[in-house]
Specification:
Length: 548
RNA sequence: GGUCUGUUGGUGAAGUGGUUAACACGCCCCCCUCUCAAGGUGGUAUUCACGGGUUCAAGCCCCGUACAGACUACCA
């Protein structure tokens, strides 16, 4: 029996590969257009690493006038999670990553669900068998495990290759007999590689990668008739006309396998771009951000904290291209999409996930947003995570917008919130609904004031402060009064003769601020007092004095 | 054990053989202003994991060591 006859015997009703080769036409795109894909497996919700990959894939496809498609790699039913695919699509799309074609959306290069492509894979396995480049393997898990422990003991390379590949040279007749006897089997690649031969592959991100030829007879078709990742990758990316494979760098070590597969199948090899992982410092150990161990790996975590989607995108861009941050700082009014990403500006090693950096980016982002936009998005956020505060916001829409507008229309806008939840955390005292329900709002005030100081404060609020004063008037009155009660109104005077003063004007202002806001940090004091109004100030003053 | 990759300040990093090792975050000092924040000035790496080598010249090239990461499944 020849290889060709054996292939026919194994796959009697399968189409010839020429059918598929002709079915999927060359894509009609401009020169240098990048065709790439996001290819998740439906094993749960998306995490930062996935999002990063999808985001970069999108950027490269868009900026080159190419195509981005979604392929679902559902060849492992054991690990599958219910609704896994839908939640991934929703998550990714919420970041503005919209696919040109793919699962659910359709397209001319489908199906885009690997489990719908079984027939295609079979055709190519049949082709390889007919060429003598693939064979059925009857080894049991026990046999493989056994070989493995022998290999470990002898300190030999682990795997199914060379003399360990016992089914590789099984005569066709013997194999056929086993199949007729209903023995279970899988298909393996009959590797033609020589482990001692080295080659160099140029990775778009990592540069030149030196690797030995693959000599492992890897599994290509599993006993459930589904392909392994390696095989599906080669077939799919070939038929879908992918030009660039953008994926995590956990795949670099499989590169020799993929390169051999493409070569033996007679396919053009795509350009690979292996993305460095997002890292985390755990105690003193640096490791890959783990979906299972690290809450901050999940995208949802940032939603919950209240980071805007745009901020996450800015952060990923910063991580993505080392020159992005500089560009963005120089062009604050441009959109991320205006930046041209390049592979050679991507990190080769891993990137530490830096929360304080994220916060900083976010503060700057909030500082340039319009109050009405912040209000709108914050409301969406609180409706999901804090309904009570969402109601308060809705009942105080104009008031909140005014609050968010403080020190906004100036050259250097304030930077005091980095998340939507900060609005509550930083400004809760502005809402009587919250202030009045707390038994001691001044619980966290460390500094205590004596009766002299309280009298001064009291006199100021009751007799000096006038709601109708403009800011200039407000401050000159404040200064005049402060001086009267022995607060230094300029730094030099105080430094020269601290003994002559009760403190500096800043101390006086701090006392007012603490009384009004319970905090030592707040937006412009004048504006805060204006917004609250005289009556509330007097009310708070009484509470403050009692609780001191 | 094997294969591949990486290692620049507190952090993220620029840097691909040639003056004082960019920039950003953080931290500290000071300044400014009518308070806080913001902002501004300056300081934060005698040196690029370590040891050799090549070169007139090395963070950048070569070799070795250490450490770290990825992979080494009928998982992706």
């Amino acid at each position: 029996m020849t290889n060709k006859e054996f292939a026919e015997y194994l796959f009697p009703d399968v189409k010839d590969i020429s059918y598929y080769e002709n079915l999927y036409k060359k894509r009609d795109l401009i020169d240098k257009a990048i065709v790439t894909r996001y290819a998740p497996s439906p094993t749960g919700s998306i995490h930062m690493g996935n999002l990063f990959q999808a985001f970069m894939a999108k950027q490269f496809a868009r900026q080159s006038g190419g195509v981005l498609f979604l392929r679902v790699e559902d060849t492992d039913h054991k690990r599958e999670v219910e609704n896994g695919i839908d939640s991934i699509i929703t998550d990714v799309e919420s970041f503005g990553i919209i696919f040109d074609e793919g699962y659910k959306k359709g397209g001319e290069y489908g199906p885009y669900l690997q489990s719908d492509r079984k027939e295609i894979y079979k055709s190519y396995v049949k082709y390889l068998v007919s060429k003598g480049l693939a064979y059925p393997c009857f080894c049991t898990t026990d046999e493989i495990n056994n070989n493995r422990s022998i290999q470990e003991d002898n300190k030999e390379r682990i795997g199914y290759y060379g003399k360990w590949a016992t089914c590789r040279n099984l005569p066709i007749e013997v194999a056929k007999k086993k199949i007729d006897d209903k023995m279970s089997y899988i298909f393996r690649l009959k590797s033609q590689g020589d482990f001692n031969k080295k080659h160099i592959y140029y990775d778009a991100i990592k540069g030149n990668l030196e690797y030995p030829e693959n000599d492992m007879d890897i599994v290509i078709l599993k006993s459930d008739n589904l392909p392994t990742y390696h095989f599906a990758h080669a077939i799919d990316d070939h038929l879908m006309k992918t030009t660039h494979v953008i994926r995590g760098d956990e795949w670099v070590s499989s590169l020799p396998i993929h390169l051999e597969l493409f070569t033996l199948l007679g396919f053009d090899i795509p350009q690979y771009a292996h993305l460095a992982p997002l890292l985390k410092k755990d105690k003193d150990i640096v490791r890959k951000l783990s979906k299972r161990k690290d809450p901050e790996a999940s995208v949802k975590y940032y939603h919950q904290l209240g980071f805007p989607i745009e901020v996450i995108k800015l952060y990923l861009s910063t991580v993505g291209n080392t020159n992005f941050e500089e560009w963005y700082l120089a062009n604050p009014n441009k959109k991320i999409e205006d930046f041209t990403f390049s592979f050679d500006k991507m990190a080769v090693g891993g990137t530490m996930f830096d929360l304080s950096k994220l916060e900083n980016i976010s503060k700057t982002y909030f500082s340039i947003q319009k109050p009405s936009d912040i209000f709108k998005d914050a409301l969406i956020y609180f409706k999901e995570y804090d309904k009570e505060f969402a109601n308060i916001l809705e009942n105080n829409e104009d008031y909140t917008k005014k609050l968010l507008n403080i020190e906004k229309e100036v050259e250097r806008p304030r930077k005091d919130i980095s998340t939507y939840s900060d609005i509550k955390l930083e400004f809760w005292y502005m809402y009587d609904e919250l202030f009045d329900t707390i038994s001691n709002p001044y619980d966290n005030v460390i500094k205590k004031y004596n009766s002299d100081e309280l009298n001064i404060l009291s006199a100021y609020i009751n007799n000096i402060y006038l709601e109708t004063d403009n800011e200039e008037m407000w401050f000159s009155k404040l200064k005049e009064y402060a001086l009267q009660v022995k607060y230094a109104v300029n730094r030099k005077d105080y430094k020269e003769h601290p003994e002559n003063y009760r403190g500096q004007i800043s101390d006086f202002c701090e006392m007012i601020r603490v009384m009004v806001t319970t905090k030592t940090i707040s937006p412009n004091l004048y504006d805060i007092m204006q917004l609250l109004g005289s009556d509330k100030l007097k009310k708070r003053l009484k509470i403050f004095i009692v609780l001191q």
